[in-house]
Structure formats: structure tokens, C-alpha cells
């Protein structure tokens, strides 16, 4: 779970946080299984060793485990990658991070295959037009996956847009985007499924909108729409390789 510079810690210990994450993972896995969809789970590096059982459940269900880097250095990432690959008996191919947080050559040295970028923003605002290219491209022998952006609304398909955009409008964004692009990368974050009391950090009011059961309902509606629209869904590694 990423931290935020502007957030104040709440009185929640590590055991409480892990228990909450476990419960939310069960809900998400059940909804994906109900619709027969496979997804990629980007696990924050500091949580990998604390969620060993849950990561095994994710892989057992057919999903992909990749890494999310909040603020880990290359040594920590590499050691955690080796640890995870040993107990999962699966390669960790993907790393999600802020744009150029760790240089691509360093990521390649750690034997990652792709980077899922979170674009840097100079203002802390959830709706913005992306400044970098939005197509999948290649650099330093890595597959670079930028955030998708709707040509219809100019909104990126990031977690906050999923959280606050009216579902019918969000569905229209997907439909219009797929008319001009072969794919749309959709992201959501585990903390969005928590209540304000369960969060380890106090968030600004706009980041608390629709969190908890509201986000669960939004995910369920999204998956139903994708199923009814017969849109293909895949894990990152399946689509890329």
C-alpha cells in the first residue's frame, strides 16, 4: 500500500493492516472468479513477506503477481524478488512505479520484463491530461506500459478516476477507447476497498470518496459490464508476451 507525503498516520498496527488487506483480497478474488477473469496483482514490496499465504492464493487462482514500488531501493527490490520467486515458483515479470523512479537499466538488471508506469504529476489532482506517450513501447529491452487515457474524456484510467467517475461514464470511456486502441489498462488500489477507519493513513476528502463497499460495488458493476460487452480480459504477462 503506497504512502502519501501529505497523509497523517492513523493508530493502526501492522497486524490490523495485514488482516484488512487479506479480507479485501478475498473479496476481489471472489468477484474475479465469479466472472472468470484473470488479473495482475501489483504487491507493494514491503508487504510481500507479510502476505506470503495470500500471494500463493492469488497465483493458485491463476492470477499474476507483480511488484509495486512505493519507496524501496534496488537492493531491497532484488532480494524481495528472489524471495517471492522461490516461494511462488513463478517468475516476477512486472514492476509498477512512478515514472522513472528507478532507471530502466537497473530494472532490467533485476530481470523484470515490463514496467507499469505511474505518471508523475506536478499537482496533486486526480484528473489530468497525461504528458507522456500512452502506447506500449520498448526501452532498454523492457516493455514500458504507460497509463491508458480515454480519447473521449482525456481522463487517464488510473485508480482515482475509477473511484470517482460515474460508472456509466466510465463504461463509455472504455468503449470509446477500445474503438481507437487495442487495449485499455485499468487500475484499482487495495486501499480503495477499505473504510476510512481501516486506512493506515488519513487521506484528503477527495481520496475518501466512494471507498469501502462503494468501491466493491463499482468493481462488480465494471466486471459485469465487461462480461456483458464480451470484452477480453487478461493478465499483463499474457497480453504482452
UniProtKB/TrEMBL annotation:
GO terms for biological process: carbohydrate metabolic process. This is Polysaccharide deacetylase. InterPro entries: Glyco_hydro/deAcase_b/a-brl. It comes from the Bacteria.
Amino acid at each position: 500500500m503506497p504512502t502519501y507525503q501529505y497523509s497523517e498516520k492513523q493508530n493502526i498496527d501492522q497486524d490490523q493492516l495485514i488482516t484488512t488487506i487479506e479480507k479485501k483480497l478475498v473479496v476481489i478474488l471472489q468477484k474475479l472468479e465469479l466472472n472468470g477473469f484473470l488479473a495482475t496483482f501489483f504487491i507493494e514490496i514491503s508487504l510481500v513477506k507479510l502476505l506470503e499465504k495470500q500471494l500463493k492464493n492469488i497465483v493458485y487462482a491463476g492470477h499474476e503477481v507483480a511488484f509495486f514500488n512505493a519507496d524501496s531501493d534496488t537492493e531491497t527490490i532484488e532480494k524481495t524478488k528472489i524471495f517471492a520467486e522461490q516461494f511462488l515458483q513463478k517468475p516476477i515479470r512486472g514492476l509498477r512505479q512512478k515514472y522513472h523512479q528507478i532507471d530502466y537499466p537497473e530494472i532490467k538488471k533485476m530481470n523484470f520484463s515490463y514496467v507499469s508506469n505511474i505518471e508523475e504529476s506536478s499537482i496533486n489532482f486526480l484528473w489530468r491530461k497525461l504528458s507522456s506517450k500512452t502506447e506500449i513501447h520498448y526501452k532498454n529491452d523492457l516493455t514500458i506500459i504507460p497509463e491508458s487515457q480515454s480519447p473521449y474524456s482525456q481522463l487517464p484510467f488510473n485508480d482515482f478516476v475509477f473511484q470517482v467517475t460515474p460508472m456509466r461514464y466510465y463504461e463509455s470511456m472504455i468503449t470509446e477507447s477500445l474503438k481507437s486502441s487495442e487495449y485499455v489498462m485499468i487500475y484499482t488500489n487495495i486501499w480503495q476497498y477499505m473504510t476510512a477507519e481501516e486506512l493506515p493513513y488519513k487521506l484528503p476528502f477527495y481520496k475518501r470518496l466512494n471507498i469501502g463497499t462503494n468501491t466493491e460495488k463499482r468493481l462488480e458493476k465494471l466486471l459485469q459490464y465487461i462480461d456483458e460487452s464480451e470484452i477480453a480480459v487478461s493478465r499483463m504477462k499474457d497480453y504482452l508476451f
